[in-house]
Amino acid sequence: MTDVVDSDELMRRMQRAKACAQEEERTWRERGDALREDDPAAARDAAVRATAYEVVLRVLDEILTPGARRSGG
What predicted TM-score, i.e. pTM, was given to this entire model? Predict the structure, then answer.
């Protein structure tokens, strides 16, 4: 069954998703920093995951606040 949600609920869900992505990005960046010297391969994996969450954040930012974040490239 498909749930029908109003625009306010959709915005709340996207904001929760953004908060979750921010936390995950922070967690993976910290993990990568902690692993950098002892396990370079795991540190690279963590960096890739952090970058993926950064991309998700950029997309959600553009949806939630169109045009607020302009990139130079």
Answer: 0.80
